[in-house]
Please model this.
Amino acid sequence: MIKSFLKLWLRNLLILIVFAYFYPGFYLKSNTEAYFLSSLFLTLIEFLLNPFLKTIVLPVRIITFGLFSWLTETLQLLILAYILQSVEFRSFFYQNFKILGITFDGGQINLLFSIIVGSIFYKFLKELVKAINS
Model:
């Protein structure tokens, strides 16, 4: 149990470092103590509250055939941001960019959309680290 807890803690630490670096809507204080503490609390949330959160979200996941599986991670990250002052979601601006010849104008991502996109990106990172680890 301790070995799996430590593996989950280190995995969450790696994910939070990458997530805070690449996603501008997620703010985590840039000191080692904040990273370790937030990773520890996120691991505790996953260990203790994840079964309860999955039970709450289960009807939505059944109705949407698993499309809203990111909702559990959203709740975990929001609980983490509520508990710790060093973690927060923010709205952010993006610049013009071009994909496959289509130009997208710059704009602002509001807080709600930032949380949704951030939790989907967090779930992607989590699954990527799981796939690499196994």
